[in-house]
Amino acid sequence: MSQENEHVKCLIIGSGPAGYTAAIYASRADLKPVLYTGLLAGGQLTQTTEVENYPGYPDGIMGPAMMENFEQQARRLGTDIRFGYVSSVDFSSRPHKVVIDDSKTILADTVIISTGASAKWLGLESEQKYNGFGVSACAVCDGFFFRGQDVAIVGAGDTAAEEATYLAKLCRKVYMLVRRDEFRASKAMVHRVLNTHNIEVIYNSEAKEILGDGQVVTGVKIFNNKLHAEKILDVTGFFVAIGHHPNTEIFKGWIDMDENGYIITQPNSTRTNIEGVFACGDAQDHVYRQAVTAAGTGCMAAIDAERYLAAKEHAVTI
């Protein structure tokens, strides 16, 4: 297949809060950025309903509408936004080679990776049916909507324990479903869970089906592996806390990552181990994973890219 080449100053891969914010800053710095959206334009926020914790929206905003605002702002400032996905990269020489849709090669002086992360799901049909309507993978994002209600959370690690205790401050009752007869979480986190009066840990149990009235969640059917018995919990919220996986597979072998695939950036910076390649948002943040923190690192990546290019140009003119 013949490949068409194009040279750009700044290529942004991904279109969530990090990617669009990077685009806004890169456009204003006259880097003439080209942004490829990936297959899910707008990222994880397009799969959520109301966002109430992003500053500047006093009445809240729907996730898809918010990402549309980000996109329009980036476009108005001059970002060339294109639908497409990255099929391979070659960071062995500069400019960096990035292949789009297996057919077009972009030669980029700087690359900003903002491919995000995806929540791991249980794989239930009903889980996807009620996603955003009682089912969530982020207690910090959505717990507020379940104040005074009964909810269930699935998971046994530190994240699940942390999210369960967060929900316990807001909700009347939190059922925590642990598949085995013990936690994977640290002792400190387990201690915190077991000493929270309104968390009930249900061991040896897993969710079999999310129940609902066609619009919102009304309960969850669970199965106890030890007792071989089914039970229904009356809950209005169902939280999945079994982890996330960063969308970084395409960069393996080039970019330094931790054992879970999160990109490692240099301290107080978005720089990666490859000169001229920067990473921002949930692709490199496994701690906070919020829209506002992703946007913040998107800003940092664009500033880092602009300073990198300015230093290169200055070196050439000396």
Describe this structure in words.
About 25% of the residues lie in helices and about 30% in strands. The protein has about 325 residues and is α/β, with parallel strands linked by helices. The chain folds into two domains: about 5-120 and about 245-315, FAD/NAD(P)-binding domain (3-Layer(bba) Sandwich), CATH 3.50.50; about 120-240, FAD/NAD(P)-binding domain (3-Layer(bba) Sandwich). The strands form five sheets. Strands 1, 2, 5, 6, 7, 8 and 19 form a seven-stranded mixed β-sheet that branches. Helix 1 runs parallel beside helix 2 (about 65-75), helix 1 runs parallel beside helix 7 (about 290-315) and helix 5 packs parallel to helix 6. The chain is elongated. It starts with a strand and ends with a helix. The model has no long low-confidence stretch (mean pLDDT about 95).
